[in-house]
Amino acid sequence: MKVTICGAAGTVTGSCHLLQLDNGCKILLDCGLYQGSEEDFEEFNTNWLFEPREIDYLVLSHAHIDHSGRIPKLVKDGFRGDIICTSATRDLCAVMLMDSAFIQEQDAEYENRRDPQKKAKPLYTADDTEQALEQFVGIGYNRWYAVNDQVQVLFRDAGHILGSATVTLKIKTADGEKLIGFTGDVGRPNRPILRDPRPMPDNLDFLISESTYGGEKHDDMPDDAELFLSIIKRTCVENRGKLLIPAFSVGRTQEIVYMLDKLETAGKLPKVPVYVDSPLAVNATEIFVAHPECYDKNLLEYMTQDPNPFGFDSLKYIRAVKDSKALNDLKGPAIIISASGMMTGGRIRHHIFNHIGDTANTLLIVGFCAPGTLGAYIRTNPETIYLFGQEKKVGAKIEIMDSFSGHADQGELLEFLNNINRNTVSRLLLVHGERDRQLPLMEALKNEGFQNVVLPELGESFDI
Fold this sequence. Notes:
Elements: E1 2-5, E2 17-20, E3 26-29, E4 57-59, H1 65-68, H2 71-76, E5 82-86, H3 87-114, H4 126-133, E6 136-139, E7 144-146, E8 151-157, E9 165-173, E10 176-182, E11 206-210, H5 224-238, E12 242-246, H6 252-265, E13 274-277, H7 279-289, H8 297-302, E14 315-318, H9 321-326, E15 334-338, H10 348-355, E16 362-365, H11 374-378, E17 384-387, E18 390-393, E19 397-400, H12 410-416, E20 427-431, H13 435-447, E21 453-454, E22 461-463
Parallel strand pairs: 3-4, 4-5, 5-6, 10-11, 11-20, 12-15, 12-16, 13-14, 13-15, 16-19, 20-21
Antiparallel strand pairs: 1-2, 1-22, 2-3, 7-8, 8-9, 9-10, 17-18
């Protein structure tokens, strides 16, 4: 039995890992899209390190596109097995993968308009996505599910986004049972909306762990609301400007809206209009409303006084393109939350183009931005940016709140892994992290008693 790292090796996107059993059964853990512009990964999304037709099952940790975004292509290229995930992940993927297909088709159309000789084709289409969605199997947390006679899977809440899960596979072998663990993306304790991450089984034989924020410590949660409110007041009240918030449509947008909702309920939110300008975020929020089984106790208690934690009088959700364009001519202060979070595409790029030059405005970055993305560049506080073929002077104030992160920092990840028996884990692979983040985490894990910690390369295989 062996594991091959087919994505997220030394980078934070494109999560994909292949487990090959001794009897020939092949199980894929995640099938993510690479998001970024590093030259080493230019061909990642179009090529496979395995034959899709030979994969028997796909086990999906959560719906984020860097973990699920190549599923329709996997199906397009011949995969016909079950896609096993939580029920909330299945529902989120229904809207997220359709949105991704639409983007693929639009990008190909745009490229062909620019250069008809190019004959660009989308990575996958809506039809491919429809086929993929028929293969999803949604199951609950905290119970073993029989994949086949030899393999069982256990999902436990990872506290990262709605429906996110850690994955444990129980595999029958000639030498007895083996427990293979995959953290997916681990969330943070004491974050709003979702339950805290639940520990994985303590007797794992082999573990693949994320490492996104190795060597880092996030700001403490108690400072979140007050700092957020101070940015709103300075921008919208004192400067009469607009607060632009690039945010992932799933997870981050709902967290920001919930925080604004609580400020409004408490009478602290200034009387300014708030717009969520992302059709995907609108659809995702409806799915959040439909899955209260994922909520933490604080949100459930809050709902006794406010039954809709994702809506208030001054909040407007925007779907139509014409309504989005109208925001460009909006006079006076406003808060605009829009995708994509890394500013690689979506409506936020148009809002940045139209508002980045005004010194009254603020651009608030509330999430990780992969190297090579516009978001990563703006985090450096540049004097100008290049967008839609034009150089734009940056007049708006750039603010960063990494405390919003949905990923555990190093201390939180170490605490999450603390219950695992160091004597049973034969090897711990660190994936989903840049090398400069993985190195300090590797040393910290060794100091915690995990002896065989490895930073795998793309395509590298390990025996279990």
